[in-house]
Design goal:
The chain is an alpha/beta fold and 303 residues long. Helices cover 22% and strands 38% of the residues.
């Protein structure tokens, strides 16, 4: 049990000393206010600040440091920044506090104005670990990759990508088109949703397959159980096939691969009073009420 979980389970209000924070920040958004507040909090509590190196563009605001030396990783930006920090947190076994700076996010727990209060609550153990599953990817050569939101298998250039897709060893579909997205339940609100996939409640033990712009035939999105294995093989394509992991371009796909769901791969810092998954999607305008209902609301407001 980690010292953080020990404080959480004890239920006590005692403060735990935090020796180091690791930062991941958005490349372009104005982060001066939240980072300035964080610096002051850290100085007052004797906590060192370092910036964690990730394969993601960042504004340089602190000396480089390793995530393993940090008690907490803090992402200041949006969901993309949060994903970069979470990937670093997985490798180092560290929790991540994701702070929305300029926009709401599904993975973010607080807005930038709530950062200092969140740090106080974290230091007292007044937080809830949000355990996130991830996608475990095994290649034919034995190498392994992982993703927290989604993995995209897409055409690498001109010409359609042809994919043979299996679920638990049985044929699901043979596709010709742009490719396919495999996403976790949390990731269902990202690329998969934009491609026409369903929303999946984040606590559901499942993941999903969403085809991308197929040329003819019929292949609906498919939700599969947590213990299933999804197999892909690119049979032919003029431009080849590329992998994208959590929005970051990966290697060229060579040979078949297998994708499964791994439980409790990452830990996000959550709070019992933060907004729900659906509430955030509504605020972001991803879920929008029928225009007829909105028009009725507007008429009633004028009475």
């Amino acid at each position: 049990m980690s010292k953080r979980e020990d404080v959480l389970e004890s239920g006590g209000p005692q403060r735990t000393a935090l020796s180091c924070f690791g930062l991941v920040v958005h490349p372009t958004r104005d982060v001066d206010e939240p980072v300035g507040g964080l610096r002051r909090w850290a100085e007052a509590h004797g906590t060192r600040l370092v910036q964690v190196r990730v394969p993601y563009d960042q504004q340089l605001i602190a000396d480089q440091g390793n995530p393993e030396e940090c008690d907490l990783l803090i992402a200041v930006g949006g969901d993309g920044t949060a994903l970069a920090a979470i990937r670093a947190g997985v490798r180092a076994g560290r929790p991540v506090l994701a702070v929305a700076c300029g926009s709401l996010g599904v993975l973010t727990s607080v807005g930038d104005h709530g950062l200092l209060d969140a740090l106080e609550r974290f230091s007292r153990g007044d937080w809830v670990p949000r355990r996130l599953p991830g996608l475990e990817i095994r290649r034919e050569d034995g190498s392994q990759l992982f993703a927290l939101n989604d993995i995209v298998i897409r055409r690498g250039g001109a010409g359609q990508l042809r994919l043979n897709v299996q679920v638990d060893g049985g044929l699901f579909a043979r596709l010709a088109g742009d490719g396919c997205v495999v996403s976790t339940a949390v990731g269902s609100s990202a690329y998969a949703l934009a491609a026409g996939g369903p929303l999946v409640e984040p606590d559901l033990d499942a993941f999903l397959i969403t085809p991308l712009n197929i040329h003819g035939g019929f292949c609906p999105p498919l939700v599969v159980g947590a213990t299933s294995l999804i197999g892909f093989e690119a049979t032919s394509s003029y431009g080849g096939a590329q992998l994208e992991l959590d929005g970051q371009e990966g290697d060229t796909l060579v040979g078949p691969l297998t994708i499964g769901l791994g439980a409790d791969m990452a830990t996000l810092v959550g709070f019992s009073d933060q907004k729900s998954f659906l509430a955030v999607l509504r605020e972001r305008g991803i879920i929008i009420d029928s225009p007829r209902i909105l028009a009725e609301d507007a008429r009633n407001a004028q009475r």
